[in-house]
Amino acid sequence: MFNRTIKRIARYVFFILLIIQIVLLFLKHFFELYLLWDIVPYILGYIILFSVFFIFNKSKIRNFMIYPVLIILILIYSFRFILRSEEKDFYFKSPRGTNTIIIEECTFLLGGWSNVYIPKYVIFKKLLPQYNISADNGGRPFTNNDYSMNWKSENVVVIKYDSYTGTNNIKTITISLK
Can you give the pTM of this predicted structure? Predict the structure, then answer.
């Protein structure tokens, strides 16, 4: 009786979280909307993977097929999570506080870049793919405070930042929010 209850709960959790994960992927790929909290999809993914252990309880299929696949998926998820743990979000408000931009600073090996977002619908941030902030040698201009920001209006901001490329390494980007 107890095992059936756990198995039933695990199935419900699995399918509900799988639907949520699919909706989040749909929003990401078709509308460029991401959750403000980047860790949530990883937590959902881990719970989905671990709930499979309870769903296939006492199954011979589990021993030969499910375990190796789940272990590989958990390792891949963990590797992706470790890579994403280096990312950091910076929030900048316009002078009157009517607009906000979110700059997500990322590095991998010797490359560095930043994605620009605007907040949407309270729990999401929308990617603005037309704006590219790049740095070399793993540089982190926002973490190292190597930038200046000038709001031209409530909807336009000019960012000057160190791109860590050596000579003439100051780059300028103008971001328009409308």
Answer: 0.77
